[in-house]
Amino acid sequence: LELLAHLDRMDLPDPEGLMADPSRAQLPERGDLRQATLEAVVAAVGARPERARWEAAWAVLVRALETGAPDLLVAPA
Predict the structure, then answer these.
(1) For residue range 11-59, what is the model confidence (pLDDT) as tens digits?
(2) pLDDT at 19
(3) Number of domains forming the structure of the chain
(4) What range does the domain containing 11 cover?
(5) Which 3 state secondary structure label does DSSP give 4?
(6) Of 76, 71, 69, 21, which is closest to residue 43 (Cα–Cα)?
(7) In this predicted structure, what is the pLDDT of residue 70?
(8) CA–CA distance, 31 with 72 (Å, rounded to integer)
(9) Whole-angstrom Cα distance, residue 37 to residue 72?
(10) What share of the chain is helix, strand, coil (3-state, %, to 5)?
């Protein structure tokens, strides 16, 4: 029950929405939430690997690099 409450408070953006328009991706500011979001993007591509999705995911990662700490990209990339 505590885990579900914690996950509910995280309020992460939908990875599909981020990949739909990477140039406008609004990523969380907090590092742990940002990393979880990037991991979700990578997992979404892994679940349905297609070239366009792969390219969109990389565009989201580039957006994350441009707007935040670069060290958060190491694990997802």
Answers:
(1) 899 999 999 999 999 999 998 899 999 999 999 999 999 999 999 999 9
(2) 98
(3) 1
(4) 2-73
(5) helix
(6) 76
(7) 79
(8) 7
(9) 11
(10) 75, 0, 25
User: In the 8-state DSSP scheme, what is residue 12?
Assistant: P
In angstroms and rounded to an integer, the radius of gyration of the C-alpha atoms of the chain is 12
Q: 């885990």: which residue's tokens?
A: 3
Pull the structure tokens for residue 33: 């939430």
Give the span between the Cα atoms of 34 and 27, in whole angstroms. Answer: 6
Q: Is 49 helix (H, G, I), strand (E, B) or coil?
A: coil
Angstrom distances, CA of residue 63 to CA of 14, 42, 47, 70, 74: 15, 14, 22, 10, 14
Q: Token pair for residue 17?
A: 């929405």
